[in-house]
Amino acid sequence: ECGKSFYQSSCLIHHQIIHTGERPYRCRECVKSFSDQCNLISHQRLHSRKWPYRCGECGKNFSRSSHLICHQNIH
Q1: pLDDT by residue (tens digit) across 44-74?
Q2: Where does the UniProt annotation place the signal sequence (predicted)?
Q3: Other C-beta atoms within 10 Å of 63: how many?
Q4: 3-class SS at 53?
Q5: What is the 3-state secondary structure (H, E, C) of 6-72?
Q6: What would the pLDDT profile of 17-31 be if each residue is shown by its tens digit?
Q7: CB atoms closer than 10 angstroms to residue 40
Q8: Which of 19, 41, 53, 74 is the most buried (most CB within 10 A)?
């Protein structure tokens, strides 16, 4: 469909979800759904208040490591 190729068939299947718009991973706490299980797990941390990534500089916590990395650039 888009011309991308993948070494593993599982990666292709995962990528194809982008084109179908399918969002099979649903949050049990709210109405949100996700195409990727990792995004669902990260989202669920918001409900449980489990934010395991802590800034060593100021002590602020984050639910995703990528958010912590972006935050650290302000120090």
Answers
A1: 988 888 888 999 999 999 888 888 999 999 8
A2: none
A3: 19
A4: strand
A5: CCCHHHHHHHHHHHHCCCCEECCCCCCEECCHHHHHHHHHHHHCCCCEECCCCCCEECCHHHHHHHH
A6: 888 889 999 999 999
A7: 18
A8: 53
